[in-house]
Specification:
- This protein is of the alpha/beta class.
- Helix content is 53%, strand content 8%.
- A five-stranded parallel sheet has the order 2-3-6-1-7, with helices on both faces. Strands 4-5 form a two-stranded antiparallel ribbon.
- Helix 10 packs across helix 12.
- The longest helix has 38 residues.
- The two termini are 69 Å apart.
- The relative contact order is 0.07.
Amino acid sequence: MSDSTPETPEIEKPTAPGSPEEITRKLEDFIKNTLGGQVLFTRVEGHGARPSADGDDKADEEAKEDAGAAFEFNYKPADIKAHLDRFVIRQDEAKKVLATAVCDHYHHAQMLREDRESDSTGPRLEFSKQNVIIIGPTGVGKTYLVKHIADLIGVPFVKADATKFSETGYVGADVDDLVRDLVAKANGDIDLAEHGIIYLDEIDKLSSGPERGGRDVSGRGVQTTLLKLMEETEVPLYAPNDMRSQMQMMFDTRKGRTGREVVNTRNILFIVSGAFGGLEKLIEKRTNRKAIGFVSSDSKGTAAEHLFREARTKDFIDYGFEAEFIGRLPVRVVCDPLSADDMFQIMKNSEGSLIRQYEREFAAYGVKATFADDALREIASRAEEEKTGARGLVTAWERVLRDFKFEMPSLGLPELRIDGALVRNPEQTLVLCRTAAASMVMELGAAHADEVRAFAERFQREHGFTLDFDSDAIAAVAARAQREGMHVEAMCMKLFKDYPFGLKLVTRSTNETRFVITPDAVANPDKFVSELVVSACRSQPDSTITDIIPDVPAHES
């Protein structure tokens, strides 16, 4: 038998209606389409790996081979700070502390893994996690710092608002969902998820101080449930109170899995942050520092900034945090408020500058937007008055540019210079833009008319026919030329290249050599000239087609 004989492909047997396979398929479709959009845990790598969703045995083997794969970390604190300097202005102390804490955390994680994998019979390494708490007002870059660290080192990053969680998940979300979200962000790679970063904002809202009495469900209780995550615990991959997770576990169990996969939080770095309004008063009381006399608002802000740097564990406990909870956040970072000059530098030098976003938005309509320094300083000053940090830049710019973003795409101006005069009086500048656009239309119309007339003159010299373009036809030629990316004269040559022959036919019948070109001729030039020929034949009823076109034999007429 020849080796080249093709094999007969196996024909997949149709699934019988009502069979277990049919029911399973429908339930899987229900999960994907109704309960959350997609099944997240279809493929898990590393230890605890399970088969792919389609039950491919090859995926099982690959997962086993990858089980020994580990997250590698090769950065130094200076490398991380240099990366952050590209995106975050100021906050040098926060960058240094965060960079050092991240490097220490991941280097220790590698050492612990190597120690577990070694054959040494000596005592095992111990490691106290360096979870981080960041203190600072809104809009100073707390989230931005953590996000770009995660992007640099290549680990999954989950951000959440602490106020959305409840102690057991019966009112709000369950804190264990943070760990499951890391697995989802890691595309099911448990080993990578176990080296991720969880960032909780608004952590100060969980305090249960005297002024926040009665907030146990979303405050003290959540602190208690976070304790186990911040040290070391194993979180079930399937949430016991989530329908989607339980149904997914059922399907995986049918495929031979135990449904007991877990994620260990030993190497997950936890970073929390908040504004901590009122904490400075507790520090002030402890240190017996009281301002005497009248103090300006700027001085108050500076004083609060320095007081935050002296925060101790007792201050956080008095603020309403559990001692065990705050004790698991040994690294404390203070972010400085942003001044007007800081916001100017953010717009001018940051790689993630808001200015780049506005340039792209205008460029989408063919408008080149340029920003002058005096405009940036004026906006920075206004943003500082908003008291919302860098977020105030968006507010200030939107007030100034909202009408320009609406009208510039339709005005047709190729450039918009955004300077101090525009920021101070946007209405007047917009009027000037409208005037300039009207003038540009008139100038372009005159230029287009000259190009069309030049074509008509050359056409008359070469072929003896006069083409009279009315104003609407000139505008139609210009619009079509712009639409197809051609010069006006080139567009005329393209549209009317066949007119010499057609107009000769008309002239033989009517002796007419002057023709008016309308917008219809621009839209459909072949149809226009054909109708002229037909009209010429009808105007001479005694003539035949051979009279107009002598080269055509009589038997073909």
